[in-house]
Each structure stands twice: as structure tokens, then as C-alpha cells.
């Protein structure tokens, strides 16, 4: 028997709803035939697919980062505004595809408003710099009266776009990035850009680039150098991480939330070290603005010599296990809700996305859609600590011995509801869970399957779905539930 204890008195922090963000990059079919497809039967007058918009709303996404990703490091935002017939076709150096620029800044803001999400903007600090970032901000956020704000108005957007969150480049430490930099070079450019952007709009939230992943040789050192220079000018430091089963090691893969947990703790430690050095009162927060499962071992990396029209790229089809892992990564983000204020599931549609589409055809939910949607739906405003007693451990090659149970909980003072999010990471053993409670069970939903490799497809879009667990019950002040191997759960309780 495993006992899980939750008490509204033991608080991690307030949940920032931007933790349920996502990411749209001009990559593969995320934009074209993903969110935007004029001529599609469901497209509205703007060319936005309504079937996709409905799924985005159902997913519960709150904020979306745009336009990249590696794409942004060679992007000229001016190409994507104004009359569509005059927009140039350009070669995108990141993915070696022809970018038609039929979808750009104004379209994205219009789409974000329809989707009900807050836009997060990344500026090009790869092939461009301070002046272009300032120009873009002026175009987007100044009400009127300057050349660029008036140009936005002339282009059909009389109201400022009022974009509040700006990322200072993307993965600038990565040698694959066009215009990548040393930590010192980037730190100086980020500082200068932040300084300039704040002169246009002092109230922006700025995100400095952290490392591209925790495996980078400069991980930790990069963050230290960047923050020592820009600590006072930026609000967040970014983290990126993608997880996959390596060499068929599914056991470690199911435990990979451990890796995310350690990465977050390490970045917090660096940020707090710089804070102490600077004797600053300000607490820097984290933007985990790219995370997901991505089978990178299956991605050739080299894109070949042919320059292509935009087409399918990294359209991973997600399994039940992938969904359990995504659920466990969300649990990790919630466990750090005191410091992680923004997080973006990368990406939103088609490109390693929870939503998949056919060009001209159907749209459906991948397996990973469900833990995201249900966590976004049921997570309450306050994240609570959870304590576990008596649970089994699992032995992993990548992380050593780790607890099979991975959990977090939230509390909603207004409704009195507690939501427990929990994953059984064991591949072999079920867990009999006991939770002492003062109220009643509202509902227990779970995601698992006899066939852990099962997927959703266009022809069988509902093969994998969450299921209600009717055997869970509260008796004599204890909620008892059985968690099958490799399973994700949300258990809602009244007070
Ligand atoms: O999301 C796919 C790519 O992964 C992004 O373009 C880049 O930022 C990251 O390396």
C-alpha cells in the first residue's frame, strides 16, 4: 500500500496559467496546413482552420510562442506583413524550406486572439540584432504616430498588438543555430537588446536564452555568464528539453521527469547564485519554453540537399507511454510552480504536436493531447506539496533508483476542490494508493492501455482516450485507487 498525503497548508506556490503554453514555429506543417490553410473546408475568412482552433481551445493552451525556434534566427519579420501578393518567397535556412510568408505577424496575432491565447514573441538575434528587434516591437506595440506603428495600422490592425512577452533569440548556444554565439557574445547582445526594447515599452516581460538542453557542454556556465550580465534586465531564463526512449530503454524513458526535475533545480541554483552575487532582491523565474517527447534519434538532422516546399517534418506519432511521460513532465513543471512561470509544449500542431491534421482533411487528438488538456482543465490556482510513504521504487539505467510514483496536487480555495495528478512509472507493478481525505471523490480519470504502443490515427482517432475509473472510492476518510503499470491519473476530491 502506498500512502499519498496532501494538505492545503503545504503550498508550493501560485500556479501561473502560462505553464500551459505551446509553440508554433514556421517548421514543417505547423503553420501551413496546420493552423493556416485557406481553402480547407473548415477555414474561416482569414484562412484559419476552425477544426484546429476548436482543438486548440479544448487543449486549454493559454499562451503560444512564435515564430520559432531555429526558424527565427534567419527570419525577416517585414517579409510577413502587408499585402500578401507582395510578400516575398524566401529560403528558410533552419529547415531549408521555401517560406511563402503568407502567414506572418498580423496573422499570428489575429489567430492568437481567436484561439484565446497570449502571444509570446521571439526576436531574431541570429542573423539580425537590436535595431530589428526594436522595429518589430514598435510595429507591434506602439499605438500610432511612428512609421512602423502607422504601417501596422495601414496593414489593417488599428489597435496595438500589445505583445507582453519577448524572447531574446532562440537557442543561441546551439552550433546548429544560424548566428549562434559564445555565452559572452550572447550575454552582451541580449543585454543591449533588452535595454533597447525596454526603452520602447518598459513593462515587457523579457526571456533570456538559457541552454538548448541540459546535455550542452556549456550548460550551467552559459546561464551564469548570461545572467551575470543581464540579471536586472530580464525576467526569465529559458530552458529547452526533449525526451525520447534511448536505445529502446523504455524504463528510463518513463522516468525522464527526473531529468527535467534536475535541470530545473540546476538552473534555479545558478539563478540564485547570481542573485546572491548581485545582492539583488529580484527573484528570476524560468520559462521552459520548449519541452516534449521527440524521437530525435529518428530525425536525420541533415535535411538533404534539396530545397523544398514546406512539407511534413518530425510528425511523431505518440503512443500511450509517450502520453504518460508528457503527463509526468507536466507534474514536474507544477512541482516547480514557484519558479517556473511559463512553459510551452513544443509544438502545437503536426510538428511533434498534440494535434495532427491532414492537408485538406481531418484533424485529431494525439495521445499526448489528453494529459495536457486534463491538467490544464483541472489544475487549481494553488500548487500543493505531496508526500509519499511506502511506495515502490524502480531501477533505471539513466537515473538510478527512483520512486515509481510521481505526483503533485493543486487546490482551489473557491470550489474547495483538490486535484491530484499522479503517474505510476513502473512498467510491471500496479500501485494501490491511499489518500486520506476530508471530503468525497469527484472523479478519477486515467490514461493507460494494455497496449502501451497504441496510437491515435485519422482512421481511428479515439483509439486512446482517458477513461473514468469507477473502482476508486472514498471510505472512512480514505480514498483508495489502483494505478496500473505505466499510467497517468487525475483524481479530483471535494473538501
Ligand atoms: O521544436 C523544434 C526545434 O527544436 C526548434 O526549432 C528549436 O528551438 C529546437 O531545437
From TrEMBL:
Species name for this entry?
A: Kribbella karoonensis
Q: What keywords were assigned to this record?
A: Carbohydrate metabolism, Glycosidase, Hydrolase
EC number from the UniProt entry = 3.2.1.55
Instruction: Give one Pfam hit by family name.
Output: ASD1_dom
This protein's record includes keyword Hydrolase: yes
Domain Alpha-L-arabinofuranosidase C-terminal, first and last residues per copy: 289-487
Q: What is the lineage of its organism?
A: Bacteria, Bacillati, Actinomycetota, Actinomycetes, Propionibacteriales
Kindly state the subunit structure of this protein: Homohexamer; trimer of dimers.
Q: Which domain of life, per UniProt?
A: Bacteria
Spell out the protein name for this chain: non-reducing end alpha-L-arabinofuranosidase
What protein family does this chain belong to? Belongs to the glycosyl hydrolase 51 family.
Q: Which reaction does it catalyse?
A: Hydrolysis of terminal non-reducing alpha-L-arabinofuranoside residues in alpha-L-arabinosides
Keyword Protein transport listed? The answer is no
Amino acid at each position: 500500500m502506498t500512502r499519498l498525503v496532501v494538505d492545503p497548508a503545504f503550498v508550493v506556490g501560485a500556479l501561473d496559467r502560462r505553464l500551459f503554453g505551446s509553440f508554433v514555429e514556421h517548421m514543417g506543417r505547423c503553420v501551413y496546413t496546420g493552423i493556416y490553410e485557406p481553402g480547407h473546408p473548415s477555414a474561416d475568412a482569414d484562412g484559419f482552420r476552425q477544426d484546429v482552433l476548436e482543438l486548440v481551445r479544448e487543449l486549454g493552451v493559454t499562451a503560444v510562442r512564435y515564430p520559432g525556434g531555429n526558424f527565427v534566427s534567419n527570419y525577416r519579420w517585414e517579409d510577413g506583413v502587408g499585402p500578401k501578393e507582395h510578400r516575398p518567397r524566401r529560403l528558410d535556412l533552419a529547415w531549408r524550406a521555401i517560406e511563402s510568408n503568407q502567414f506572418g505577424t498580423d496573422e499570428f496575432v489575429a489567430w492568437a486572439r481567436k484561439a484565446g491565447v497570449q502571444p509570446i514573441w521571439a526576436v531574431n538575434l541570429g542573423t539580425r540584432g537590436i535595431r530589428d528587434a526594436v522595429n518589430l516591437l514598435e510595429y507591434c506595440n506602439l499605438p500610432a504616430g511612428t512609421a512602423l506603428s502607422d504601417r501596422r495600422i495601414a496593414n489593417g490592425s488599428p489597435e496595438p498588438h500589445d505583445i507582453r512577452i519577448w524572447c531574446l533569440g532562440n537557442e543561441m548556444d546551439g552550433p546548429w543555430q544560424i548566428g549562434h554565439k559564445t555565452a559572452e557574445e550572447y550575454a552582451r547582445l541580449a543585454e543591449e537588446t533588452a535595454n533597447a526594447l525596454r526603452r520602447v515599452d518598459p513593462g515587457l516581460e523579457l526571456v533570456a536564452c538559457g541552454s538548448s538542453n541540459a546535455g550542452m557542454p556549456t550548460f550551467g556556465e552559459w546561464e551564469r555568464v548570461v545572467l551575470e550580465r543581464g540579471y536586472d534586465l530580464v525576467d526569465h531564463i529559458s530552458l529547452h528539453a526533449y525526451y525520447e526512449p534511448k536505445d529502446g530503454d523504455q524504463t528510463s524513458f518513463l522516468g525522464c521527469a527526473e531529468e527535467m526535475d534536475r535541470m530545473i533545480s540546476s538552473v534555479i541554483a545558478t539563478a540564485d547564485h547570481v542573485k546572491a552575487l548581485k545582492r539583488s532582491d529580484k527573484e528570476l523565474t524560468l520559462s521552459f519554453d520548449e519541452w516534449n517527447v521527440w524521437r530525435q534519434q529518428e530525425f536525420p538532422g541533415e535535411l538533404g540537399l534539396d530545397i523544398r516546399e514546406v512539407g511534413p517534418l518530425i510528425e511523431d506519432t505518440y503512443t500511450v507511454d509517450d502520453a504518460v511521460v508528457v503527463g509526468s513532465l507536466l507534474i514536474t513543471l507544477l512541482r516547480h510552480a514557484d519558479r517556473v512561470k511559463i512553459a510551452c509544449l513544443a509544438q502545437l500542431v503536426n510538428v511533434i504536436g498534440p494535434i495532427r491534421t491532414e492537408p485538406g482533411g481531418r484533424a485529431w487528438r494525439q495521445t499526448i493531447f489528453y494529459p495536457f488538456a486534463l491538467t490544464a482543465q483541472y489544475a487549481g490556482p494553488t500548487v500543493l506539496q505531496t508526500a509519499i510513504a511506502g511506495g515502490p521504487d524502480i531501477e533505471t539505467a539513466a537515473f538510478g533508483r527512483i520512486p515509481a510514483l510521481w505526483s503533485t496536487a493543486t487546490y482551489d480555495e473557491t470550489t474547495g476542490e483538490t486535484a491530484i495528478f499522479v503517474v505510476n512509472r513502473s512498467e510491471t507493478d500496479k500501485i494501490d494508493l491511499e489518500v486520506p481525505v476530508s471530503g468525497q471523490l469527484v472523479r478519477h480519470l486515467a490514461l493507460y492501455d494494455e497496449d502501451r504502443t497504441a496510437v491515435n490515427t485519422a482512421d481511428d482517432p479515439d483509439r486512446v482516450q482517458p477513461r473514468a475509473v469507477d473502482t476508486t472510492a472514498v471510505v472512512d476518510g480514505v480514498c483508495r485507487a489502483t494505478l496500473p503499470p505505466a499510467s497517468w491519473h487525475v483524481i479530483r476530491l471535494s473538501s
